[in-house]
Amino acid sequence: MSENKVERVLTGKVVSSSRDKTITVMIERKVRHPIYKKYIRRSTKVHAHDEKNECSVGDTVRVVEAKPFSKTKCWALLEVLEKSVAVDHIA
């Protein structure tokens, strides 16, 4: 008996990377309102494991579902799709 496991892969933006080896990723999706038929943005935040601490706030990343690392962290960083551009503010 072979098991066909489907890996859940999500794409989102890093909104926090303050903890060691952990990033918070916000995944946005659009759903259609059942009555008004207008598309509404819904978001979900997930905690993901970043082994090399390579992500910073604003990066676009792809995360994959994994075994639980802690109480709230059950996603792992798959790849960094786009790095954020750091802008220095001149006063």
From TrEMBL:
It holds the Pfam family Ribosomal_S17. GO terms for cellular component: cytosolic small ribosomal subunit. Gene3D superfamilies: Nucleic acid-binding proteins (2.40.50.140). One of its GO terms (biological process) is translation. GO terms for molecular function: rRNA binding; structural constituent of ribosome. InterPro entries: NA-bd_OB-fold, Ribosomal_uS17, Ribosomal_uS17_bact/chlr. Keywords: Ribonucleoprotein, Ribosomal protein, RNA-binding, rRNA-binding. Belongs to the universal ribosomal protein uS17 family. Part of the 30S ribosomal subunit. One of the primary rRNA binding proteins, it binds specifically to the 5'-end of 16S ribosomal RNA. NCBIfam families: PRK05610.1, uS17_bact. This is Small ribosomal subunit protein uS17. The gene is rpsQ.
